[in-house]
Amino acid sequence: MHFNNLHKIKLLIFLFGISANLFSQNLTFSPYSRFGLGELNNTAFSQIQGLGGTYIGFKPDTTAPLFINASNPAAISGIRLTTLELGGIAQFSEFSNGITKVKTKTVNFSYACLGFPIKQRASACFGIMPYSNVGYNLKTEIYQDGIGTVTSNYSGSGGINKVFFGVGVNPFKKRITRFYRSAYRDTLVHHHEVKKYKRIKFRKQLLSDLSIGARADYLFGNILNTTSVVYPGSINFYNTRRYRGVSYNDITAGFGIQTSFNIDSIGKRVLRKKIRIGFGYYMSLPNTINVKNNYMAYNYTLNGFGDEIPKDTFIYVIDQPSSIRLPLEQGIGMSIKKGEMLTVAVDAAYTNWQQFRYLDKINDLKNSYRVSMGINFVPNKYAAGSGAYIKRIQYRLGAFYNTGYLELKNTAINNYAVTVGFGLPVGLFRQFSVVNLSAQFGKMGSVNNNLIQEKYVKLVIGFTFNDKWFNKFRYE
User: Fold this and answer.
1) E strand or H helix at 341
2) What digits encode the pLDDT tens for the residues 187-207?
3) CA–CA separation, 169 vs 77, rounded Å?
4) In a domain, 189, yes or no
5) Could you give the CA distance from residue 349 to residue 56 in angstroms, rounded to a whole number?
């Protein structure tokens, strides 16, 4: 029994609704989420996370099963069937300062996205996912002469979510086809002008496969940071507590470009499996977004039972308009695909965090760099008959290194990991469906200079459904 369009729309609204509620839960326990906008979320879906998050030059297939690469909106143009992506994440972390270890775990919904073709040369997608997460609870104790041990507590919670809408266009899609069918091509072949033919074919391929995409991100959410200073006894000194809550509600954007060309032969040898070389570029704009700043600070003492006795409030600011300038992010990527079996992709990206302004203030963050690599292998995508299932499984391997934007006590807080993943074809619904599993094994930070290192395992499960939605049926 098939879903009709009304049932599909109701299902989609329900899934997006529960995802918005789940994003409100705590998704990180990292002490480094105290800085900047918090711990930034990986924007890639499960299949690309299995490739080390390598997405800039990676262009999904245009034949089923289809995947959505919303990280580079140029790749959206290849969506030829209605595609629904859903994902969840489980993270297991161990935090250590070299002496003490603390283990945490969190499980949550990760993303939901719907992609669909608009016309023959354009496609679109929209979805929701976390943009950043904040969740930390720190304590420091410092002995001061004449006072005693002063305790400082730092805690934070919340995060930023994003609803995104992207469009990808392939404006010159038929240029190479027209060239193959043209009299000019026949003339070149007839006169054996091989070099000229290859040059023109190369240019036509790059133009024909050129995809341009743009994505708008609506950011919303709240981040609360709390700081308290507690003096011993609280007789001669007042304790202090500060709350800062920032509400986000604005739009930013990014765009991307992808293209590729085929290698059909090497010298006089015709390749049995064509090689496709792809290139990509992505930029996230350094937009300034408007926020509301709430700030309160007050003094208090503690009675014999440990209860707070407020004394006076010396700062009280509610819904103060302010702004945050996001950093410029840009990167390039390359992919090499051999037939329908093997794809290798690499990325290099740069983020200018020195441009970042938080509540109109300059922050001491450093520019960050990311490199990643991924391999996708499928023995036989179209296998049928005995043993076909194993041949249709997609096997993925990847790695990444990110320098991060923090440098504390002259120590860089970098992040690196290796990833593995699988794409498992399943018979859910009536068309092409895949369960994508990926695992990430990584380290972030350092135990040097009394800092904290996080060892983590991230498990992401994603569901990809391909179907023909919103079709008009004919009755006779």
Assistant:
1) none
2) 888 888 888 888 898 999 999
3) 5
4) no
5) 9
